[in-house]
Every structure is written in structure tokens, then in C-alpha cells.
Amino acid sequence: MAELCDLLAEAMGHSLPVGKVVLIGDCVETSGAFVLHLLLKRCLSLDSSFVVFVALSHPFSHYDRILRKMGCNLSAQKKNGNLHFLELLDFSARSKENSVDDGFCKLYNEIRKSVEAARSKDTKASCVYIMIDDISLLEIAADGSENDVLNFLHYCSTLTSETDCSLIILNHEDVYSSEDAPRLLAHLQHLSDIEIRAAPLNTGLAADVHGQLTVINKGLLNDDRRSGRRIWNFQFKVKENSVEFFYPGSQH
Fold it and tell me: What GO CC annotations are associated with the protein (predicted)?
């Protein structure tokens, strides 16, 4: 057994990704929210780190309760200026006066200003992370306008290169219709440097294993020192206050 971030350190080539886009994908049978929770805790535990958390699916109280069980006080992190929490449960990109594009521009500008402020503080943040907890809800907020969602994600991804921050996205892959899924998922996968996929076991339900995690790193160097795609597979068991991770076949 091992900590997720220890296993991801090997898979990502870094303890946590810097200047990268990380896509977490899951499905109804196997939620990947626990990965987001663990990465949020790890990001906030780093010295001089700053997180912009865009909450579309759950309020602050939900995350505060979960992270407290994991030993991380989000209220204290907010008070100390390490966390900017954007609670957007009723977010609509369209208003009576403005277009959908205007709504996403305002959201993007708020994220960008938070990132720039963290970079320019006297105690300059060495690591900045943008987290979005449910990208599928953005399409609802955009009245089904997939193009506006894709444009917004593209602008957010440009921050990774412009400000050397990282973008971490949770996407529920099976909530889309069969017609919409290929294009949106393809775009998300194209933007991402690292994919983390939570899925049920191929063998079905098991008492000691709740699912499998696949990590795809598209930028690691291979034996010839050239960039290449590498894949790792882990299994996991979710507990009340933690998650156990292990390589397939190593759980007893």
C-alpha cells in the first residue's frame, strides 16, 4: 500500500505537476472525487502554495467537512490566504444583458487575477493550482454551448504556460450524450498533460478493492530521452478518512 501522491510522483515525474493540465475522469459507478480531495490537500500542504478552487457541484462546507477528516482545515487555509474558493453552485454564464461568452470572460478574469495576485505577493507563491470540481456543469451554465466551454478551458490552460501554474479538472465522462461526448472529451484529452481515470474493476465488485486508477503521463522521457506516453495502473480502497492505494495483485 502507498499514498496516492507517492504513486503519482513516479507516474507524473514530479511530486505534483507544475505548469501542467491534469484531467481526472470518472464515471457513475466509480467516482474520482477522492482524487481531487487528495490533490487539494497535498497542494495546500506545500510551502508557499496557493489554490484557486472553482466549486460548481458542492459548497465550501462540503469540502471543508471532507478535508477536515483528512487533517486539512480549509477555513484556516482561506484565512491564511492560501485558498481562494469560488462557490458557483448557481453559476450561469448568461445574464439578461450579456452573452455566454461575457459570463465566462468574467469568471476567467477572476481566476487570472487571483493567480497573478498570488504570484506578486510579498510572500510569492511558488506553486499555484487552479482546480475545477465538475467541468460538465459548465456546459449547463452555458445553456449547452459547448464551444463557449471549450474556449473557456483553452484560456484557462494558457495560464499554465503564462504563469507556470497548474490546472486540475474533474470531469464526469458518462454524463454526456453519445453525440456530445467524443468532441468534448477529445478536446479535454488534447489539452491535458496527465490523465487520471477512475473506473470499476474489470473483474467486477470486490470487498477489498473499490476500483482502479489509470494514470497516463504524456510528457515523460523514455529510455531514449525522448518525450513519450507512459501508463501506470493502481487499485484503491476508499475509507472514511483516507484512501489506500496499491499495485494490482499486491492487496492481501
Answer: elongator holoenzyme complex
Q: How far apart are CA 123 and CA 229, in angstroms?
A: 36
Residue 165 to residue 238: CA distance in whole angstroms: 29
Element (H, E) at 128: strand 127-132
Q: Using a CB cutoff of 8 Å and minimum separation of 24, what contacts does 148-153 make?
A: 148/93, 148/100, 148/101, 148/104, 149/104, 149/184, 150/184, 150/187, 151/101, 151/104, 152/104, 152/107, 152/108, 153/187, 153/188, 153/191
8 Å CB contact between 29 and 175: no
Length of the chain counted residue by residue:
252
C-alpha cell read off for 54: 472553482
CA atoms of 211 and 166, how far apart (whole Å): 26
Which pLDDT value is given to residue 100?
Answer: 64
Write down the pTM of the prediction.
Answer: 0.87
pLDDT of residue 225: 45
